Amino acid sequence: MMRQSYSKIQQIGTFIGSIPSFETKKSFFASKPYILLFMIFSLLGFQSTSFGQSQVEIIKADSLVGQNTPFMQIRKLLGNVALRQGTTLVYCTQAILNETTNVLEAYGKVKIIQADTVTITGDTAYYFGNDRLAKMNGRVKLDDGTIILTTKQMDYNLNSHVAYYNTNGKIVDKKSTLTSREGYYNTVTKLFDFKHNVKVVDKDGSLTADSLRYSTLSKEAFFIAPTTIVNKKDTTYANPGSQYNTITKIANLKGRSTVKTDDYVMTADTMIYDPPTEIGIANGNIVFVSKKDKAILTGEHGRYAKKIGVTRVFGRALLKNVFENDTLFLTADTLVSLDNKETKTRKLYAYKKVQVYKSDLSAKCDSLSYNVSDSTIYFYQKPILWNNKNQSEADSINILLKNNKVHVMNMKGKSFVVSVDTLNNYNQVKGRKIVANFTKDSKVEKVSVDGNGESIYFAIDDKNKLTGMNRVQCSKMNMYFGKSKISKIAFLAKPDGKFMPPKEIKEDDKELDGFRWKIADKPSKESILKKVAYIAPVETKPAPKDSVSQKKSPVKTPAKPLAKKNIKK
């Protein structure tokens, strides 16, 4: 060691001695003192540029030419060049190695192998040994056994194991091909970060985005920008925070995403969607559109299974069925749609707190089924329906729609129909079974009673003046209506009734047992939409302690709300 140091000191002395005169030496080092320090540290083995990094070593070459300058040691290598730094090997046809700066310039069939795990090839390269950074140019290819990355230029940091390109890159694995303008790839974690014009393509479809993170191990894509996924059967529009498995095709969508197929469109705050099984789970303000039926289902939560034809929506659930000149609004706690692929029929079921509105129909009941194919709606658990100025109640009711208008209404068990005439009198019919027929403009045309029939109807003359009231009991009867009043009545069994002139009519005589006019309970479009509307919670901030608002003030007890009562007239 002492001999080596002495030899290097001698070299310094030789160099200094080569300066012509003492005065010249003095002025030279006085003007450039750092050069003397650099020379001393360099010759003593303290190169300031290496800081403990290992030197790039020459393994072989067909020819080697050395070039020494006062401050640089350069080696030019030609033919079958091989170099090494630790576990990293570099191969090329020509190279220039600056041993002083530990920088390598490599040309022709450049290959860099890091620890037998990552292989990078290119036309030319700059390799900075102290920083362990390779700058590859030309036809660049990176192969880590998992993927193959090709581009025109690439930087690879052997310390952080991160490759970077911004000249359009292409990544190929066993299942898919990914392209982007810019990208970062960690060869240890196998994570890619892509930017600008990102596209993933496989045999089943494609994925496009402006930015994307992708794991070559799990084959999962992590969305950091709006992303579009196109498969054979569907298209998905996803927002940042979502994930997508390119193998299983399962998408975990967040941030108000949408899935579209030929038959439907589904949108929600969060969704899990499996295209192969066509099963979707949605949460948060979902909107499900059936293109074929012109129906829209909305709610807080939803489940969809296309293969078995089941759609379930619950939590502020609402159906909007669009007809040519009208829309049916139906809300309930839970809505279930069943599509029978064999019979090509569709049925809708509604459970708990059902409300219906249509321009010619309003209804309330506990549960409901709607056969879309034959336009029949079944109401269960003591339903009540309103149609124009008519009110109908029974243990169960079904109505048949014709041209999207109420055509026939069938009532079973404790049936009760109320119709308001032009003088605001309440014509009433009750019985065990009632069938009501309607005109094209949804007005009552005929009411048929079968079993335990009772009726009250008011007689009105041509001048729209009350002439009396009929109260009849008859097991079977038919009542015909015209211009909002009874025009004809036929008793099919022995009737028991009486006619009362206007002066003899008492208030108690105007009502059958069980009569209730419940117009205040009638659902409207506005009341249904208000029921299902989402109201964001209002955040209240406490006032400062020294605020005037903290002073005590008289507190008035709020008045109790009026109890809801059925309006009885």
Automatic annotation (TrEMBL):
Residues 54-210 form the Organic solvent tolerance-like N-terminal domain. The chain crosses the membrane at residues 34-52. InterPro entries: LPS_export_LptA (IPR052037), OstA-like_N (IPR005653). It holds the Pfam family OstA_2. The keyword Isomerase does not apply. It comes from the Bacteria. The keyword Chloroplast does not apply. This is OstA-like protein.
